[in-house]
Amino acid sequence: MSRELNILVLISGSGSNLQALIDASAKGLLGHARIHRVISSLADAYGLTRAANHQIPSQVHRLKEYYASIPKEDKEGRKAAREQFNTDLANIVVHGSKHGSVADYVRPDLVVCAGWMLILSPAFLNVVAEVNLPIINLHPALPGAFDGTHAIDRAWQAGQDGLITEGGVMIHKVIVEVDRGEPLLVKKLDLRKDETLEQYEERVHSTEHVAIVEGTKLALDEVKL
Ligand SMILES: Nc1nc2c(c(=O)[nH]1)N[C@@H](CN(C=O)c1ccc(C(=O)N[C@@H](CCC(=O)O)C(=O)O)cc1)CN2
Ligand SMILES: NCC(=O)N[C@@H]1O[C@H](COP(=O)([O-])[O-])[C@@H](O)[C@H]1O
Q: Which UniProt keywords apply (predicted)?
């Protein structure tokens, strides 16, 4: 009997992809895996409500708190504060607290970025890599196409401009280079000239909700190896 695998989900917003994972887990589609913790970068993320509705422990880890006493002009100060944000996040994920190990903390087997809207620095990635903890990310674009934010809008506009004929969604491993990690799953979508941004966005989100489950299963299969 294989042990239950624990998934920690990072969010920043509505959490519809978190909800897709919660629903899939409840249907047994993730095997012996459960969403055991949620961390949000924003306090008003509705994904926190979704977690609470399913009794999933959550917490908020806000970059704004680290910037609070540092003027915008103080670039070095903000850079150091952001590194501390990443270091603390790594300790929270790996050990259960930014102050070090927490007794009976259950370390996750997989971290899923499901709409986590902050670039993770080596201060986070190196700590997580040291314990061989895989991280995957959902990105609403094809590999190497529209890295970063607003990818849906950018892909749609490029389609309207006749520059490309397809967009899509991918689940990829997270590395320091943003959205350039090895793709685990790619789902292509045709771009239609007669389609509004809202219509394309709806197709993207529907595809995401399938991809996040399939991609998480693939990542869990690698964990089990
Ligand atoms: N090191 C990595 N960090 C993250 C990755 C990654 O592949 N490597 N994926 C992202 C998720 N993401 C796109 O899929 C993404 C999210 C946010 C940003 C970004 O530029 N964020 C800005 C803030 C933007 C804002 O506040 O609107 C920032 O972090 O300063 C890029 C890509 C998760 N992290
Ligand atoms: N670059 C990362 C990125 O753009 N992620 C996007 O954030 C949204 C999260 O939605 P959700 O909070 O409803 O799951 C999703 O559309 C996801 O592709």
A: Purine biosynthesis, Transferase
- Give the residue from 39, 7, 13, 49 showing the smallest Cα distance to 208: 13
Kindly identify the ligand whose nearest atom is closest to the C-alpha of 118: 1
Question: Percentage helix, strand, coil, to 5, in the chain?
Answer: 40, 20, 40
Separation of alpha carbons 70 and 82, rounded Å: 11
* Vertex 18: Cα angle to 172 and 22 (nearest 5): 115
Task: Establish whether residue 140 lines the binding site of ligand 2, counting it when its CB lies within 6 angstroms of any ligand atom.
Answer: yes
CA of 101 to the centre of ligand 2 (A): 31
Q: Give the Cα separation of 3 and 23 in Å (integer).
A: 20
Q: Tell me, what DSSP letter sits at residue 70?
A: S
pLDDT tens readout for residues 39-84: 999 999 999 999 999 999 999 999 999 999 899 999 999 999 999 9
Which runs of E-coded beta strand occur in the chain?
5-11, 33-40, 58-60, 110-113, 135-139, 166-173, 183-190
User: What pTM was computed for the model?
Assistant: 0.97
- Give first-to-last CA distance, the chain, whole Å: 15
Q: Confirm if 194 and 153 have CB atoms less than 8 A apart.
A: no
For the chain, state the CA radius of gyration.
18
Does the C-beta of 167 come closer than 6 Å to ligand 2?
A: no
ipTM of the complex: 0.98
CATH number of 5-133: 3.40.50.170
- Report d(CA 181, CA 32) in Å as an integer: 26
**Location of structure tokens 């009794």:** 55
Tally of residues, the chain: 225
Q: Report the C-alpha gap between 154 and 169 in whole angstroms.
A: 13
